Amino acid sequence: MLKRLSLAAVLASVSCLAACGSSTGPAATATPGEGGSLTVFAAASLTGTFTELGRRFESAHAGTKVTFNFGSSATLAQQITQGAPADVFAAASPATMKTVTDAGPTASAPAVFARNTLQIAVPAGNPAKVESLKDLTDPKVKVALCAEQVPCGAAAVKALDAAGLKVTPVTLEQDVKATLTKVELGEVDAALVYRTDVIASAGKVTGIDFPEAAQAVNDYPIAALGTAPASDLAKGFVDLVLSRRGRDVLTKAGFQAP
Q1: How far from 57 is each of 26, 80, 120, CA to CA, in Å?
Q2: What pLDDT score does 230 carry?
Q3: Residue span of the signal peptide, if any (predicted)?
Q4: Going from the N-terminus, what domains does the chain have, and what CATH number goes with each?
Q5: How many other C-beta atoms lie within 10 A of the C-beta of residue 65?
Q6: Exposed (0-12), middle (13-18) or buried (19+): which is 129, by Cβ within 10 Å?
Q7: Which of 76, 77, 91, 144 shows the greatest Cβ crowding within 10 Å of its Cβ?
Q8: pLDDT tens-digit profile of 141-151?
């Protein structure tokens, strides 16, 4: 009888330790092989490439779900500093990444993974006959630009300053995708957007190179955030972006290697 009671007591203690340990101990951090949820905030110009990399990451890590928030880097940085839950931030400029790092430490030092340059995007057929950056100064040519506070807008300002030109846009958009859409819909005659977005348009617009773009190249940094709920998954995704496989996807889309 005593032996049976003792055995029952031991089993009860083990059961309690297992149950109590799982409920009161520190939450386990998912590793890249265990599945889980990963939230990535990324510049709008990364929509195509990061969606592809997200699929590859999910395929390589069974049970993992990658959720993206694409938009203006400046807006995303503001959301992160205000407490939006994010594991990884990929920005279209070091300046917008600095907004985040100044607000708190990142789990890993920001690393530049790609570079991007501007092109003049015009609708199919180029109805306004735009051939150079100077043509955008013609008041008859309707131009769309990104707002100056977002990376594509800051790059446009640099390029125009380098050319000594002033352009009066008919609209200022909050990210490069919105700017490109104005061209695709024929609402403007031209816009300054990234080369990668022209490629992603799949023929809806035509890209025109101009020499001053070399003065306004944007570096793209990425970092796992210090407050990342899924820290191991965040590191794994950053490693994928920085890897040869990640670079191949980015290069195919028109990005330059850093």
Answers
A1: 26, 23, 33
A2: 87
A3: 1-18
A4: 34-115+219-252 (3.40.190.10), 118-216 (3.40.190.10)
A5: 14
A6: exposed
A7: 91
A8: 999 999 999 99
